[in-house]
Amino acid sequence: MPSLFIDGQWTSGSGGSAEVVNPFDASVFETVDQAGPDDVERAVAAARAAFDTGPWPGTPVGERGALLHRVADLLQRDKEEIARVETLDTGKTLVESRIDVDDVTAVFRYYAGLAGKDTGRLVDTGNPAVVSRVVHEPVGVCVLITPWNYPLLQLSWKVAPALAAGNTVVIKPSEVTPLTSVLLVRLLEEAGAPRGVVNILLGEGRTVGAPLSEHPDVDMVSFTGGLATGQAIMRAAATTVKRVAVELGGKNPNIVFADTDFETVVDNALTAVFLHAGQVCSAGTRLIVEDALHDDLVAELARRADRIRLGNGLDKDTESGPLVSAAQLAKIEDFVASARAEGARVVAGGHRPEEPGLRNGFFYRPTVIADVRRDMRVIREETFGPILTVERFTSEEEAIALGNDTEYGLSGAVWTGDAGRAERVARALRHGTVWINDFGPYFPGAEWGGFKRSGNGRELGPTGLAEYQEHKHIWHNTQPGPAGWFTGGV
Ligand code: NAD
What residues does each domain of the chain span? Predict the structure, then answer.
């Protein structure tokens, strides 16, 4: 079946084809179509026409919400198949992929509900003859560009609010993991999305993402991915003053005070960083530990990290899968080599696994690195892999300073039994999400996004819908008459 969906038709496109690789063993398990320049033009034109002259922007919000509810039902109907494809494509465990499908379903249901409650507001002007209203209208044609680590989840955070608000969309998933985005578009079609409202183009960032970001008929680009790509998209969008929402990387501190239960810390520190082989924008990569706990914690983390079972994401005994690609594996090997060269101590992992069954895949052992300095590359740059670094502190002020000593500001956590201290540290951290005595949970009703170079937008929550809306002020003078300014000529 063709992989591109343009103007309500599945089509092969003119950009040739590309192989999709299973990171578990580097085998090719699917071939997909690629978009050419004319497909980019056709998809934007279809979305433009569907917005300018089609029914969708004017469809009552309740009906738009009903379509999103139908998609949620279909996601649950096809949950096992979607989860299996996500695991084959990304390498993550099936358990994680199933959780992703449930989370995606919840996102669709959340925006289905919010669509009906989003009413704009009346403003009191103090003049009874004037009705002043702020109404919410869709932005227009939205391009949605997504990364490879949570292909379906990241797309849902964009497509559900964009459609709830009445926009039309052109989706450009990562070339590394395109498959579940195609499956989602099939469900949107089955749920009854009108022609041209949803379009999907597959292909590389350079050949498909970049022309979409520059296109004069596109009103908004919503992007999740790396910092350098986000900067390129912001530059490209500047020419036509498009609205841009970017969700970028993280270098997330996980701060632990010594009054926290030891087993709770060990268990959560491992989960925070090694889920999905560390390829999580909000991964707790920088563990920042109070002196008294430091040595015992490093020893126990190393012991437990060495026992993490790597394997095929489809096997139920697997605790962590491979990295997504050979390029990502090479990047992680380079980070560990640079940490060693700069004098850090690798206390667990630091190499590829030895099991013959894992030799063909893009596997790397969960790695714990101690004795780090703040100027090391492994501390400063986003690693996006199974690397946990451990720093130490003596005072609350020092913990906060370390937590904020990064160009990123996506997420962080503080662990302590002292509620006052927990609140002080949470407020002082310059990160978009802060967990207290937890790490990782998010939910559709609460905003997600970055401070500093982690981004400029917010996804989820009411603000995640507002990203896809224009807020228009309508001033209605019900008793018009002369203004009386220029009366000289009367
Ligand atoms: P990436 O920036 O390489 O690619 C992301 C997407 O952008 C892909 O679809 C790619 O094809 C496209 N792209 C590449 N060049 C482009 C260009 N010039 N113009 C337009 N589009 C272009 O990122 P990735 O490697 O796929 O994903 C990993 C990154 O995503 C990490 O930095 C991670 O932190 C970030 N991320 C952030 C969040 C968040 O919520 N803030 C969530 C997930 C991932």
Answer: 4-248+460-475, 253-436
* Model pLDDT for residues 94-108, shown as the tens digit of each residue: 999 999 999 999 999
Distance CA 475, CA 64 (A): 27
Q: Is 281 a catalytic residue?
A: yes
> What CATH superfamily classification does 4-248+460-475 receive?
Aldehyde Dehydrogenase; Chain A, domain 1 (3.40.605.10)
d(CA 70, CA 112) in angstroms, rounded, equals 9
Nearest Cα residue to 240 out of 169, 170, 141: 141
- pLDDT value at residue 487: 86
Residues with CB under 6 A from ligand 1: 145-150, 154, 172, 174-175, 204-206, 209-210, 213, 224-226, 229, 232-233, 247-250, 281, 382, 384, 410, 450, 454-455
Q: Using an 8 Å Cβ cutoff, are 431 and 414 in contact? A: no
Tell how far the Cα of 247 is from the centroid of ligand 1, in angstroms: 9
3-class SS of residue 401 = helix
Q: What are phi and psi of 288, to 5 degrees?
A: -120, 110
**∠ CA 221-224-225 to the nearest 5 degrees?**
125
Does 489 score more than 80 pLDDT? no
Q: What is the model's pLDDT at position 117?
A: 85
The yes-or-no verdict on residue 118 having pLDDT over 90 is no
- Sort residue 408 into left (φ over 0), alpha (ψ -120 to 50) or beta: beta
CATH number of 253-436: 3.40.309.10
Confidence class of residue 115 from pLDDT cuts 50, 70 and 90?
Answer: confident
